[in-house]
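Sync notes, pocket subgroup
Present: LS, DG
LS reminded everyone that the earlier model was apo-only. Rerun requested with manganese (II) ion included. Inputs:
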Amino acid sequence: MNCLYDLHTHSTASDGTLSPEDLVQRAKQAGVSVLSLTDHDSTEGISEAESAALRLGIELIPGVEISVTWGPYVIHVVGLGIDTECELLQQGLSRLQEQREERAIEMGRRLEKDGIRDAYAGAKAFSNGHLISRTHFARFLVDRGYVETMSKVFKKYLVRGKPGYVPGSWASLEQVVTWIRAAGGQSVIAHPARCPFTRTKLRRLFDEFVELGGDAIEVVSGNYTRDNCFTMARHAMDFELMGSVGSDFHGPEHSRIEVGRMLDLPDGVTPIWHNWNKQDLAISF
Ligand code: AMP
Ligand code: MN
Ligand code: MN
Ligand code: MN
């Protein structure tokens, strides 16, 4: 049987707009057979997603997308197949969640100086009791009419050099690979084609990642071009890293990205799922 994998998605447990249950339902309708929920710095949505997946007959891989400070940059590392009860992982995630809260308060202060009042409270309301991200600030700013669209709001307020930008101090690459390994999972560099650096820096990142025992890179991501996929496939093969595939779906209103809809993994790349124990998975392959 042909399997459709989507190993990178978000729910309301971070900055997605669908509840974990609704996300699983949408993935099922889209024909996804193996789905990973990978919320930013939190595994809070996993148990709800697991119950829904069991009910709907779709395989759910517990995942997370962790924020990493790498030199002057912020990058993301996805953990797949993690034991969400792992203490080391959860301690690390708790620290990141606290960081997010502090950063959000500081973002609110900076936006206030720029004439935007109540941004922290507004973003907090959009986060609905879950962790707070720049996306929640963006939704607040669009809702209040400061900017028309989500992409404009980032450009004007929320990226480096703009009034609401606070870089945050996230985990190190080494910590994250260690936490994911401790939780029995596999680590994946998320959407490397979107990393804001040169090819030389990207290759340095992959070198370091391999050295630390990282497993894979996202060779296919929701908004990649065909060219991006082939370039990332080349890197995966060069560094003997496996390839992962994920839409990075955040919700139906997020324009062009849909759950389960991505380009195919190019030939020659070893899929991250190649040695997943099929006996352990509930669905038939
Ligand atoms: P944070 O982890 O709080 O820094 O927020 C990062 C999130 O903001 C990403 O995971 C995306 O979901 C979202 N994001 C970043 N840049 C943009 C953009 N240009 N347009 C829309 N969403 C964005
Ligand atoms: Mn996001
Ligand atoms: Mn990301
Ligand atoms: Mn993501």
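DG: The chain has a mean pLDDT of 95.
LS: The CA atoms of residues 131 and 277 lie 33 Å apart.
Action: DG to write up.
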